[in-house]
Specification:
The complex is a heterotrimer of chains A (about 800), B (about 160) and C (about 290).
Chain A: H1 28-32, E1 48-54, E2 60-66, H2 68-72, E3 76-81, H3 82-87, E4 92-94, E5 100-102, E6 108-109, E7 115-121, H4 124-133, E8 135-140, H5 147-150, E9 170-177, H6 179-187, E10 191-202, E11 211-217, E12 222-227, H7 232-243, E13 250-253, H8 269-281, E14 285-288, H9 291-297, E15 300-312, E16 318-328, E17 358-365, E18 372-374, H10 382-400, H11 404-411, E19 420-421, E20 427-428, H12 433-444, H13 446-459, E21 462-471, E22 483-484, E23 487-488, E24 491-497, E25 503-507, H14 516-528, E26 535-539, H15 556-583, E27 590-593, E28 596-599, E29 602-608, H16 609-618, E30 629-634, E31 643-652, E32 659-669, H17 676-696, E33 727-730, H18 748-765, H19 779-788
Parallel strand pairs in A: 1-14, 12-13, 15-18, 16-17, 25-26, 32-33
Antiparallel strand pairs in A: 1-7, 2-6, 2-8, 3-7, 4-5, 9-17, 10-15, 11-12, 11-14, 15-16, 19-20, 21-31, 22-23, 24-25, 24-30, 27-28, 28-29, 31-32
Helix pairs in contact in A: 10-11, 10-18, 14-15, 15-16, 17-18
Chain B: E1 7-13, E2 16-22, H1 28-35, E3 54-57, E4 60-63, E5 76-78, H2 91-99, H3 108-121, H4 127-133, H5 144-159
Parallel strand pairs in B: 1-5
Antiparallel strand pairs in B: 1-2, 3-4, 3-5
Chain C: E1 7-9, H1 14-23, E2 28-31, H2 37-42, E3 50-53, E4 63-65, E5 69-73, H3 78-83, H4 85-90, H5 92-99, H6 104-109, H7 112-118, H8 124-131, E6 135-140, E7 143-148, H9 149-152, E8 153-155, E9 158-159, E10 166-173, E11 179-187, E12 194-204, E13 210-218, E14 225-226, H10 228-234, H11 241-254, H12 265-287
Parallel strand pairs in C: 1-3, 2-3
Antiparallel strand pairs in C: 4-5, 5-10, 6-7, 6-10, 8-9, 11-12, 12-13, 13-14
The chains are: A alpha+beta (about 800), B alpha+beta (about 160), C alpha+beta (about 290).
């Protein structure tokens, strides 16, 4: 069997389209004709609409809700309040992080734009008129916006509903690594670099917002929920546990999803309200949130206040790392992290460096903000980790007067150290960090840029060069460590080969634009020689797909991709027996090449996979099961560790403080590549979603808890105009434990890009006495620094 | 609150005459999607900041969420469903496919309409002109470079 | 994000439109492009009973130049102004501004009249008209009056126009020889409202000094305003970098920005200066013959 890695050219023909082919995406013909089917496009007969009344206050007591005028609006059928839900015990729901959040409040609203009541109407227009007619009597309460103030002894306890031993705004405390070892290492260091780094709250802002149609059939006592979810099976299980509807009576059905990036993992109150409304009315009920609801109420990402102490010798050998973090979770911990990891995989913060000692602690804190802590294309808090360590390493280099590239080279985990055991307990699978950085430096012309920078600096011009050499950690995860609400984080694939040789595969993951219909078909094409175009990929129908945990944290290729390869290999094994029967040969005498089992030494005696498939239904040997199908639930032995080195060049306009990214070279290593065009698209997208928080996006609140970025007017998603011409390249270091040697790529660039940009800006300003600037690095921040340093008037 | 009377309008959509009655406060986007079942045009921000609902009205791109349906009375409207020629992908659509310009696909109809209008006005745009022409269309999967390449390739292909 | 209900009327002629505005005074709003109005309706920040769509009114989108001035119909779109041959040839200030408004969709449908009547403090046209010493023609069923731009923009979303009036035309004096204009704007990203913007229209005397200068600022006060102190600094001065800087400082000093997502007060004031400086440099270069 061919188990070789595909580090080089593809081994299948373009017609078969296995791994390494830049196959055109099979989902695109419908997208470019406007025939994609997204949740907003789905209409069911007799469908009603649900719209939501939201709180203008960040913290207030609800003294009363007067819905009488709303009920007079023509077309309005019902108003649902927290009191109504309370009667059914549905006013609270569990979060994926083991906390709970309100579906609708009975007494207190906890953040601005929180759901307060739901209107059910026969049209979306009537529903909106109904929302406008509801009168809510609020009594404002003191608002806690700052997580540090939330931890002060006199701060109001925001969640008195928790147990008597938990009357504090501290949600949890989490530690990783060896505190004593880190303390000792830092105490013995020549230099300790300390910095506070804030990684602000941002929002995934997928262009499609969230929505669903809940469809309760009172006769069959069956609930179908068409919804925008990245994790259909987990949602089904949660719905069943909460609603007590038996799980076989619930079907979750996704359609095309217009971007997820983590924002479509959680269960939002709107989904539950639509279900309640459908249960109540016996009709399908549609809820589609609008853009402002999406930006103001859906789960946010980041919001980490990180303090780092990094020890080093005088000549730049890193000795130890200590990290203390305050994590602002809003009023409920609705993060979607694995159960044992309330701060996600943040403890991968030792990054690409051979750090002998590290200690990380994180405190989750409640504030009067929307709940969350989901990804923004960030692999369970890896973005926060990478930003912190890459900023710290850069500060260390500048402070010691060592070139940032040199300091990185000096401290990289070396290729011969893999598998590498990090100080916080991870086993890195494979990597070649110096190769990636060297390649990026060559492409961008690093030495020449440093010379140019020196000349420009002499003329008073501000130019900076920034590096980020990140290590990702994806593919959660091994069942001994990883679960969400107790469900282990395996993933699955079921393949059926039809008699005429085409196939269908169903998976437990869920594409939101990643091109699964193409890449998973390519894996099967690779393993079985069936042309990718002959293979249908289906996801997102819990009645048909095997159980899986869904798509987020770059886990689809590492988990479901592996399951696909192994299921295909199971089919190949059975095909061998069928071929032996057809060829009247001993199975041991057969060899597999290019979609055929042939007799060793007699290459003209063979059976193609298509012939074998036909025989599986028409001429299978007695005693063998008919059919040709397999299923695999893949439990990964370890995580995968994609990596890369990025170099960014910026120019700063001294008059305005504007930062212009002049060049950006990204060398990525995601192991073996299934479809290079799709990988490139993922990296481009990830880079732009790294640029965005580095320079533009942030959700901020004023002291009353008012969201300052609740529309696309103020939440600054980059356009084509802001997006630099990304220069991408790659190295290939296969994962040793993944059946395809692949690692996953969806989030690498989002993780790696922000510190490259921030490092470049600080590099441009270091000589003025600038050590650190928190992202987003807006013109106003840079201008304020330039003025303070006397560069600008 | 009384029901407001509907207004009869006639417009040409993708070359076909359509007569219908619309409420004054319904947008062109609503009517395209709900009444004419042309759901290729997407709804996102509803205030003209994202471009997902871009269609072409009398030769000009418009965020159809910011045009009332009654305003389109008498107009010629082209939506993404009207780009294909005799059922085949237009050169621009084919270029989007070739370059892998779509990811989640949600913004793509709007991108296509802006690109289509741009090429009609300026058959040989520079990269900067393409980027400016697409500045009203957000893509969160951020395939901007692939989208721009597809537009430039279409312009180049038209020369051959 | 769905507007409350309203009635809609699309009068065939100007007289009809003006009659309706008079009959329905206070409850009707003019629809001219809709790129500012529709978001307000959807957010239910405005709930007029009637929208008067002026798209069918003849001649309201015309752009014509007379011996004295450029006359731009209130319904002329930003794009039409940007692409107009006369504007391109002789009104670089207008061309700069028109090409930088919003995004292509906004420029395709947004109109100069709609923008001026809406009077968003960050809008581009008010500052341009102030710098160019333009005027706005307000017509009602009872007659017509011409209001100088400098007396038109009163406060945030407040102008001198009456509810019964329609903004039919915008007039900009024809620049003489050795004159130049420029518009400089800083925005956070493409299509954003300005953080600060400066419009400059000036002319040079035979001796090379500045004969006359108009400076209008956007986004740095409750409404667009004339930076009269800067104009005084410029008038009669020799156009040097030093003079530009003094004028820019004067413009900034006269600004009254409010802190918001675009930045704090001191930053906005500094950007008012920086944009004035940049617009002055370009306007003078153009007055000297640069394109």
């Amino acid at each position: 069997m061919s188990e070789t890695y595909h580090a080089q050219a593809p081994t299948t023909t373009p017609e078969v389209g296995g791994m390494g082919h830049a196959l055109k995406r099979r989902e695109d013909p419908r997208f470019i004709r406007g025939k994609g089917e997204y949740i907003e496009d789905v209409m069911l007969p007799g469908m009603l609409w649900l719209d939501i009344v939201r709180s203008p206050y960040a913290h207030a007591t609800i003294r009363g809700i007067d819905a009488s005028e709303a009920l007079k609006v023509p077309g309005v059928l019902a108003v649902i309040t927290g009191r109504d839900l309370e009667a059914a015990g549905l006013h609270w729901m569990p979060t994926l992080a083991g906390d709970r959040q309100m579906v609708l409040p009975t007494d207190t609203v906890m953040y601005q734009a929180q759901e307060v009541a739901a209107i059910v109407a026969d049209s979306r227009y009537a529903a909106a008129d109904g929302v406008a007619a509801v009168l809510v009597d609020y009594e404002p309460l003191p608002v806690v916006v700052d997580p540090f103030k939330a931890l002060e002894p006199d701060a109001p306890v925001l969640r008195p509903d928790r147990g008597p031993d938990k009357q504090t705004n501290r949600i949890w405390h989490w530690e990783s690594g060896d505190k004593a070892a880190a303390d000792t290492a830092l105490a013995g260091s020549d230099v300790v670099i300390s910095e506070d780094i804030y990684i602000p709250r941002i929002h995934v802002a997928s262009i499609e917002t969230c929505g669903c149609i809940a469809d309760w059939d009172p006769v069959r006592e069956h609930l179908t929920v068409h919804m925008t979810t990245q994790a259909p099976h987990a949602i089904r299980t949660v719905f069943s546990l909460v609603s007590k509807i038996p799980e076989h009576k619930i079907r979750i059905k996704t359609h095309d999803i217009g971007g997820g990036f983590g924002g479509k993992v959680p269960v939002y109150p709107g989904y539950v309200l639509a279900v309640v409304a459908s249960l109540t009315t016996g009709k399908p009920v549609k809820w589609i949130e609008d853009r402002s609801e999406n930006l103001q109420a859906d789960s946010f990402a980041r919001d980490y206040h990180v303090h780092c102490d990094l020890g080093t010798t005088k000549d730049g050998r890193l000795t130890g790392l200590r990290v203390r973090t305050i994590a602002d979770h809003g009023y409920s911990d609705a993060a979607a992290d694995p159960s044992k990891f309330p701060a996600g995989l943040f403890n991968v913060i030792t990054g690409s460096y051979d750090l002998p000692a590290a200690f990380v602690e994180v405190d989750g804190v409640y504030t009067n903000k929307p709940p969350g802590g989901v990804a923004y294309r960030c692999s369970f808090r890896v973005t926060e980790a990478v930003h912190s360590i890459e900023r710290m390493v850069d500060i260390a280099a500048h402070q010691l007067g060592i070139d940032p590239a040199e300091l990185r080279m000096k401290n990289f985990i070396q290729p011969d150290q893999f598998p590498y055991h990090s100080a916080t307990g991870w086993e890195y699978d494979s990597g070649n960090y110096p190769a990636a950085l060297r390649k990026a430096m060559e492409i961008i012309g690093y030495d020449e840029l440093r010379r140019e920078q020196a000349e420009k600096r002499a003329r008073g011009e501000l130019m900076g060069i920034g590096i980020s050499s990140f290590t990702e950690i994806v593919g959660a995860g091994p069942s001994h460590t990883f679960d969400i609400l107790g469900i282990k984080m395996f993933d699955s694939c079921e393949i059926r080969i039809h008699p005429t040789g085409s196939a269908i595969a169903r998976l437990g993951v869920q594409s939101q634009g990643q091109g699964h219909e193409t890449t998973f078909a390519q894996i099967i094409a690779e393993e079985l020689g069936i042309p990718a175009t002959d293979i249908t990929i289906e996801e997102g129908d819990t009645d048909t797909a095997p159980y899986g945990l869904g798509t987020y944290a770059s886990r689809s290729t590492p988990t479901a991709g592996a399951a696909t390869a192994i299921a295909a290999r199971k089919i190949r094994d059975k095909a061998r027996l069928l071929a032996a029967h057809l060829l009247e040969a001993n199975p041991d005498d057969l060899e597999w090449t290019n979609g055929k089992w042939s007799v060793k030494g007699s290459p003209d005696r063979f059976k193609t996979i298509q012939e074998i498939a036909f025989a599986a239904y028409t001429n299978h040997p007695q005693g063998m099961e008919a059919g040709l199908e397999a299923v695999d639930y893949y439990d990964p032995p370890n995580l995968t560790f994609p990596f890369g080195s990025y170099i960014c060049v910026v120019d700063i306009d001294k008059g305005t403080g504007q930062v212009k990214v002049r060049r950006f070279v990204a060398v990525d290593d995601c192991g073996n590549i299934i479809n290079p065009m799709i990988v490139d698209g993922q990296i481009h997208g990830g880079l732009t979603m790294g640029l965005a928080p580095a320079l533009y996006e942030a959700i901020t609140y004023d002291e009353q808890g008012n969201n300052q970025a609740g529309t696309f007017l103020d939440y600054l998603v980059p356009t084509a105009m802001e997006t630099p011409a990304w220069e991408t390249d790659k190295t290939i270091t296969p994962s040793p434990h993944h059946p395809l040697g692949a690692k996953g790529v969806g989030e690498s660039a989002t993780v790696g890009a922000p510190p490259a940009i921030a490092n470049a800006v600080v590099d441009a300003l270091w000589h003025l006495g600038v050590r650190h600037i928190d992202i987003p690095i807006t013109p106003q921040k840079v201008w304020a620094i330039l003025r303070e340093k006397g560069v600008t008037a | 609150m009384n029901e407001i009377e509907t207004i009869a309008i006639e417009l040409t959509v993708n070359g076909r005459r359509r007569a219908l009655k619309v409420a004054p406060h319904h947008t062109l986007l609503d009517v395209l999607r709900d009444d004419l079942e042309l759901t290729g045009t997407k709804e996102c921000c509803l205030v003209g900041e994202c471009g997902a609902c871009t269609v072409i009205v009398d030769g000009r791109t418009v965020d159809s969420c910011l045009m009332l349906a009654v305003e389109a009375d008498g107009a010629a409207v082209t939506t993404v469903e009207g780009l294909a020629i005799d059922g085949r992908l237009s050169p621009l659509q084919a270029a989007f496919l070739d370059k892998g310009a779509a990811q989640c696909g949600f913004c793509i109809p709007g991108q296509l309409m802006s690109a289509h209008a741009l090429l009609a006005l300026n058959p040989h745009p520079t990269l900067a002109e393409v980027q400016e022409g697409l500045a009203g269309n957000l893509c969160r999967c951020a395939g901007y470079q692939q989208i721009s390449e597809a537009v430039l390739a279409t312009a180049e292909g038209a020369d051959r | 994000m769905i507007p409350a209900q309203f009635d809609y009327v699309r009068p065939p002629a100007l007289a009809d439109a003006l009659r309706i505005l008079k009959e329905r005074e206070g409850e009707a709003k003019v629809l001219s492009g809709g790129y500012s109005l529709l978001p307000l309706l959807k957010l239910r920040m405005a709930q007029p009973a009637l929208l008067v769509d002026i798209r069918d009114l003849d001649g309201l989108d015309r752009i014509v130049e007379t011996a004295e001035e450029l006359r731009i119909g209130g319904r002329a779109t930003h794009r039409a102004i940007h692409e107009d041959a006369t504007v391109t040839a002789r009104y670089p200030l207008l061309r700069d501004a028109a090409g930088g408004i919003g995004d292509p969709q906004v420029r395709n449908w947004g109109t100069i009249g709609g923008s001026c009547a809406h009077a968003d403090p960050s809008a581009d046209w008010p500052a341009v008209l102030i710098a160019a010493r333009g005027s706005l023609v307000c017509r009602s069923a009872d007659g017509e009056r011409t209001v100088p731009a400098r007396a038109f923009f009163l406060d945030t979303f407040q102008t001198a126009i009456e509810p019964t009036e329609l903004l039919t035309e915008v007039r900009v004096p024809r620049p003489g020889d050795r004159s130049g204009g420029a518009y400089a704007k800083i925005e956070r990203k493409a299509g954003d409202f300005a953080t600060a913007a400066a419009a400059v229209q000036l002319s040079l005397a035979d001796d090379g000094t500045i004969a006359e200068a108009g400076v209008g600022l956007a986004a740095v006060a409750e409404t667009a305003f004339a930076a009269t102190d800067a104009e005084a600094v410029l008038r009669g001065g020799t156009p040097t970098e030093e003079l530009f800087r003094r004028a820019a400082q004067a413009a900034a000093a006269q600004s009254r920005p409010a802190a918001d997502g675009h930045g704090p007060v001191d930053y906005k004031r500094a950007m008012a200066a920086e944009m004035t400086l940049r617009a002055l440099r370009r306007a003078v270069a153009r007055a000297r013959g640069a394109t």
